[in-house]
TrEMBL record:
This is Oxidoreductase. Its EC number is 1.1.1.-. PANTHER family: NAD(P)-LINKED OXIDOREDUCTASE SUPERFAMILY PROTEIN, NADH-SPECIFIC METHYLGLYOXAL REDUCTASE-RELATED. Signal peptide: none annotated. It comes from the Bacteria. One of its GO terms (molecular function) is oxidoreductase activity. Keywords: Oxidoreductase. GO terms for cellular component: cytosol. SUPFAM superfamilies: NAD(P)-linked oxidoreductase (SSF51430). Residues 2-124 form the NADP-dependent oxidoreductase domain.
Length: 126
């Protein structure tokens, strides 16, 4: 995989390469291998990150900061859960994909969602 991505960079088809949804050890291992073999390293990580999904804070953020690797989070509003109180959108009821990502932690997420709503109200930014 790294060789194919390196070929795309050296051919001028892409400027840089990124990776999505990886653990810190996977990124470190891939970039170590790329450096050892003279291949292009990953310069960005796209990751599922928001106030509910914060796993990347454990190791990935530190690695990226240390190595100068850009972080690009997706689902920053947790598929809409952080934009409105629970049950205030059709998506919360109808979107099976969004529910599948977050329903397993719904109970503990309610505290975070309520706190976000409280702060939004305090700052008049509903």
């Amino acid at each position: 995989m790294l060789e194919a991505l390196h070929t795309a960079v050296t051919a001028g088809k892409v400027r840089a390469i990124g990776i999505s949804n990886c653990y810190a050890w996977q990124l470190a291992k891939a970039n170590t291998l790329a450096e050892r073999e003279g291949l292009t390293s990953f310069v960005s990580v796209q990751s599922h990150y928001n106030l509910i999904m914060r796993e990347d804070e454990r190791e990935l953020f530190g690695l990226c900061a240390e190595e100068g690797i850009a972080m690009t989070p997706y689902s920053a509003l947790a598929s809409g859960r952080l934009s409105r109180l629970e049950g205030h959108t059709r998506r919360a009821v109808e979107d099976d994909y969004a529910r599948g990502k977050y329903d397993g932690t719904a109970e503990q997420d309610r505290l975070i969602i309520a706190r976000v709503a409280e702060l939004a109200e305090r700052h008049q930014s509903p």
